[in-house]
Amino acid sequence: MKLINLSPWMIATFNILKKDMKTYYLKPPNISWGLIFPFAWTLMFFLRSQTPMQIQDVLPGVIAMSVLFGTTSMLAVTITFERRQRSFERLLLAPISLNALMLAKTSGAILFGVFNAFIPVIFASFLVDLSGVGWLSLSAGIVLIAITSTFLGLLIAVSVKEVFEAQTFSNFFRFPMIFLCGLFIPLAELPLALRPISYILPLTYGADILKWSINDGGYLPVSLSFALLAAFSVALFVLSTYNIKTKWIH
Amino acid sequence: MVHLFIIEAEGLTKNFNGFTAVDGISFRVAQGEIFAFLGPNGAGKTTTINMLTGLARISAGTIRLGGWDYALKGSLKKAQQRMGIVPDESNLYEELDGFNNLCFCASLYGMGKPEREKRAQELLKQFNLEAAGKRPFRAYSKGMKRKLTLAAGIIHQPEVLFLDEPTTGIDVESARQIRSLIQQLNKAGTTIFLTTHYIEEAERLCRRLAFIVEGRIVRQGGLAELMEEGQGDYIVQFILDDGGAKHAVEQELPAALAARFPHTEINIHGDREVRVTSSVPLELAPLIEIFSNYHLPVFEAKIMRPTLEDVFVRITGIEAARLKKEKEGKKG
Known about the structure:
heterodimer; A: mainly alpha; 10 helices; 0% strand; globular; B: Rossmann fold; six-stranded mixed beta sheet; four-stranded antiparallel beta sheet; 13 helices
């Protein structure tokens, strides 16, 4: 018996997501990468932490890095790869809207990012008491960071032609973002000249939500961070789809 | 509402950074026919298909497919539901097997699971790919890849099928099978728009065609209508020894023939063939004598009816040898 009657565009988008999960994200090398990468970050930072309090201090940073690196790499590479093979053309020619298509293509990376984010959380739960964590805001923050990072990866994918360019270009964005978003150097302690850069980085607001949820230590009002992170998501998606329309549909 | 013409293009133009790839072409394709664009590489065939399928924006002009005017918002997506596309290179997913590639393509057109699985099985059987259904696409031969790409193009039973160079770069047997499948699809009612630079393919498959050169349609019409343009010609075909055609050129035989028979045109076809075309009847004996004078033994000489190739050469001024060279280049 058929339980749900899906509309044609829903069937298409669900199957795009399913195919991407099967062919890219659930491949053993990517699963192990998804586990090993956050695990290595976690181990590295937690070993340096002398007290449980310090573990809680570095946890937002480790979560943010795990999401950022997982999402941007995977999406930029998979889309550039499909473009090279011309299989992406098949999707552009399908009778579904570009917005639905790109949401389907990015959903896999978003889920992968969320999965990566919870690896350090699981490790930390064995070492420190996380009962004070605001789980709802933490989860919402992680999802929003995964969304913005994925859309950033999408923006990168639209701007490059080769897989290696996607990787190089991703690093060009990721590393400055890690150091300027207030995760390791608090925003208040950043040199004044660098602070405006921090405020145009979506991760700054994501990191602040994570700090607020884990340590009650945010620098900005949490509602403002949520609103700005959501705005970044929408802006990056609109910009990426506009670029696809102008660059890929010549 | 029934539309007699399923594709209507008017003044279609495509500019790329100041270069005009397609220059104001107009054509109509009737429901149920096979229509071909015949022309050399860079003539604008793929660009036209890209505009018709929505992969390229139109710089000027209009397209209507099945009554949907692309200028109207949402029309292209409605039209895409009714079309199938087989690009010039197989672009399925290398890591998926044949069956799953077909099922995935069907899902893009909103087909439910039982329906797409049934259709995928049917197509694998129809295309003689049943045994390869569970093999990854990357393990397929070029001919098999082409067949599966064609199957993916018709998985949702489109009314119009766009085929861009369907048999380029594949072996003779696979090309023959694909041509037969195209004919079967057409018999079942699918309208087919194909581009090719294989003159014999266009002649074998199409009822109507257009010659396209440098972005412009230089002639279009029914096959019989186009062939009539060559009816005033008298063509004599000479088959020489291996490499004879090359020797004939080296020894300037064409110039000697042209001097003796001023109303003739001499064309070299391949390694052994020389064709003499004239608007007046020709006598064979003096022609053979010229070949003998140049120590070029003639193995066969026959008067031919003009072919589509002769008509194409006459209208476009493009030597058939150039098309052949291009197709060989593409194979490599």
